[in-house]
Specification:
The complex is a heterodimer of chains A (395) and B (330). With 395 residues, chain A is of the alpha+beta class. Chain A has helices at 77-81, 89-93, 101-116, 122-150, 155-175, 198-218, 223-229, 237-242, 248-251, 259-262, 283-306, 359-365, 367-371, 376-385, 390-394, and strands spanning 37-41, 53-59, 62-69, 184-185, 188-189, 326-334, 337-345, 353-357. The radius of gyration of chain A is 22 Å and the shape is globular. The chains are: A alpha+beta (395), B mainly alpha (330).
């Protein structure tokens, strides 16, 4: 095991990039002799999407500076992981990103398999891809609806809940749970796809594109919504890279990086799909990219379902798995971006250290830069467009 | 003595109209929004949930009257009445039929707009006295919004008034009787279609509903200026909002949709109030429809829209219709 090495050239010091007018105290008054207002947004606020606390300095309605304060949902998942056996890990990892549990589970399974050199049956890989894509749709639905609510539109949220419910019913039939699945294990998945899962899945596939199109008409086709989203919260490609952003936030800035294409895992190497890209990097681009990702996921699910291979759903793995000592990193493309598991084993039955690379954490990092300069309403929309899940950020 | 009794009866009648409207409108809003949202809405209290709002009113009435210590006591307590009383006064000149009116005012619509322009004062007061930053921002927004949208609202009412040649609700409605070419009702909405759209937008803003619900803006300001209010004080603020909805729709019906008159046939006197109420509720339904499906504007877009689009357009429209009316009446 080696220590942390600096990625900077030798002799250079990292320059801290702090936004102008550092906060905690009002940074002053302007020429009109009006006092700035410090506003605490959250942690109990309808639009901070969980328990995020934003410290905002206001000049009238204008946001002078904003600072994200996280940690209200910290449960010590990484530490807890050090006392869990490998087949028990799903239970706590589901609770990290509670909106898309399959991705965290799969990332951990991939890491463990890499470390212990376990072969995964082809069918298990396909099932993993299937449930992950379904989960991506469910997660994007529950992003798209609330971002509409942030902009003041109530109806799309409830329309999308109807589709999400269909997916959750399928996921419940597959895994036994609606959100805390604990289904993907090192070596494969817990059990085979249940008989008759085809019918409800096809029912969803039949309506998914059509219903999503209706929602697109209500949101993206609405002049008010466009006026609210366009040009708001623009992230330049350089900024996105500097903050280590990933997922739709990165791709909406025009950078083509999707782990499913860049480093194919599970069944993605055999599947045909496109990676939607944005051009401007504003909130509207992030909206468009995510909507198109749902359409692409529908396409992927259709292919997975048609070509589902026969065979075992898991390989034989010892209950008390003891991977050899070593260090490994595996990542999947979660709905929020690159979700990585950095796993260190000392040869014992539990990990020596488990670190979760939370994509939403890095995406939220840009908030301080992103939110300053807009109005209160812009701040809410920009923040919503990042798609943060506090369970994953705080871990 | 009989004069006193008459005044008292009218007063009681107005209060009853306002309260019944409030209860019905809140139930209607819930059901309409639920239907738009693929939900069910209230269905537990009484048949079809009809008693839900009654239960809510009872709850609000019996709640403890809470006031946070750092609030400004006098202003905090006064503000709800300052919002509620103008909303109540606006009912006075609304004529449900040629005879059913609390007070026959020659300047009916003008009086309504005048008293309603006092509402922002109460809203700002509530926002300031609450000693909460959210309430303050909400109150300021409401003030900016209502000042901006009052101008096009008044200008849009000018068109029908010019055609009728009077501000008297009775004469405005009377001018809308009969038909053009034998089959088009002489409702002012047709010649004044631009004014009607301006009125619809501006009244949606005046009643602070989505897409103009800036002062409440749930996803931004949580509950805006009424954040710190509870119990019946909140009830008054809430009730005023719904009664403003009724007023906006009622004035719109008087100005643009022929008031209590049925199209094509003469309206019997007993039917007039029913026709009027039905028309008003159809208008309210459309307001709720917009509320249930549209996103919200941003504050600067909203003010820009009012000052740069609505006011110039309505000014030009007033001049145009003035010229046309003069030419036609010659």
């Amino acid at each position: 095991m080696t220590g942390v090495q600096s990625i900077l050239p030798e002799g250079t010091q990292p320059t801290p990039m702090l936004p102008k007018g550092l906060k905690r105290v009002p940074s002053g008054v302007d020429q009109l002799a009006t006092e700035h207002l410090i506003l605490n947004v959250g942690p109990q606020h309808p639009s901070t999407h969980g328990v995020l606390h934003m410290l905002v300095e206001l000049d009238g309605e204008e946001v002078i500076a904003a600072e994200a304060d996280i940690g209200f949902l910290h449960r010590g998942i990484e530490k807890l992981a050090e006392s869990r056996r490998y087949h028990q890990m799903g239970t706590i990892l589901d609770r990290a990103d509670y909106v898309s549990g399959f991705h965290t589970e799969t990332a951990f399974a991939l890491a463990t398999e890499k470390l212990a050199e376990i072969e995964v049956p082809r069918k298990a890989s396909w099932i993993r891809s299937l449930v992950m894509e379904l989960n991506r749709c469910a997660s994007h639905y529950v992003w798209l609806g609330p971002v509409g609510m942030d902009a003041g539109a109530m109806a799309p949220f409830l329309y999308l809940m109807r589709e999400r419910e269909m997916i959750l019913d399928v996921l419940e039939a597959i895994s036994g749970s609606r959100m805390m699945f604990n289904y993907v294990r090192p070596g494969g998945v817990v059990r085979d796809l249940p008989a008759g899962i085809d019918a409800p899945l096809r029912a969803w596939l039949a309506i998914a594109d059509k219903y999503l199109g209706e929602t697109e008409d209500l949101l993206g086709g609405n002049e008010i919504f466009r006026a609210r989203m366009k040009g708001v919260g623009v992230i330049a490609p350089e900024t996105a890279l500097a903050f280590g952003m990933s997922g739709a936030c990165l791709r909406s800035s025009g950078i083509d990086f999707d782990l499913r294409k860049a480093r194919p895992y599970c069944a993605y190497g055999e599947i045909d799909f496109d990676v939607p890209l944005g051009t401007v990097g504003d909130a509207f681009d992030r909206y468009k990219v995510r909507v198109e990702e749902i359409h692409q996921s529908v396409r992927i699910v259709r292919q997975l379902l048609d070509g589902m291979p026969e065979g075992e759903h898991t390989s034989k793995v010892a209950k008390a798995l003891r991977p050899p000592a070593g260090e490994v990193y595996a990542a999947v493309e979660s709905p929020r971006g690159e979700l990585g598991i950095h796993l260190i084993s000392d040869g014992g039955p539990t990990p020596y250290r488990l670190r979760l690379r939370s994509p939403a954490y890095y995406n939220l990092g840009v908030a301080d830069e992103l939110l300053a300069g807009g109005l209160i309403a812009d701040m809410i929309v920009s923040l919503g467009s990042l798609d943060i899940v506090l369970g994953e950020i705080d871990r | 003595m009989s004069l006193f009794l008459a005044i008292l009866l009218r007063f009681v009648g107005l209060v009853a109209l306002l309260l019944v409207n409030g209860v019905v409108l809140i139930y209607m809003l819930r059901k309409v929004l639920a239907r738009l949202h693929l939900r069910i809405g209230p269905n537990r209290t009484g048949p079809w949930g009809l008693l839900q709002t009654t239960a809510d009113v009872a709850k609000l009435l019996t709640k403890e009257d809470l006031r946070a210590t750092p609030t400004d006591r006098l202003l905090f307590n006064t503000a709800p009445y300052l919002v509620f009383v103008p909303a109540f006064m606006a009912y006075i000149p609304i004529a449900l039929s040629p005879v059913l009116v609390a007070a026959h005012l020659d300047t009916g619509p003008l009086f309504v707009f005048a008293v309603l322009s006092m509402v922002p004062l109460g809203v700002v007061m509530a926002g300031w006295a609450s000693n909460s930053k959210w309430s303050l921002i909400g109150g300021m927004r409401a003030a900016g919004l209502q000042i901006a949208y009052e101008v096009p609202l008044l200008l849009s009412a000018l068109g029908p008034v010019m055609i009728a040649g009077s501000l008297d609700p009775l004469r405005i409605v009377a001018a809308q009787s009969g038909t053009w070419l034998g089959f088009i009702p002489r409702w002012f909405v047709l010649p004044q279609i631009v004014a009607f759209f301006i009125y619809a937008i501006a009244s949606q803003a005046e009643t602070q509903q989505t897409p103009f619900d800036m002062s409440e803006a749930e996803s931004e300001l949580i509950c805006g200026f009424s954040n710190e209010y509870g119990g019946m004080r909140f009830g008054f603020l809430y009730l005023a909002e719904f009664s403003n909805m009724f007023i906006a729709s009622a004035v719109g019906t008087l100005l643009f949709f022929g008031g209590w008159q049925l199209p094509w046939v003469a309206t019997p006197l007993w039917l007039a109030p029913i026709v009027f109420i039905v028309k008003v509720y159809i208008g309210i339904y459309f307001m709720m429809w917009a509320r249930g499906s549209l996103p919200r504007f941003r504050m600067d877009q909203l003010l820009g829209f009012a000052w740069k689009v609505l006011i110039p357009v309505s000014l030009v429209w007033v001049v145009l219709s003035g010229v046309v009316i003069r030419l036609v009446s010659r």
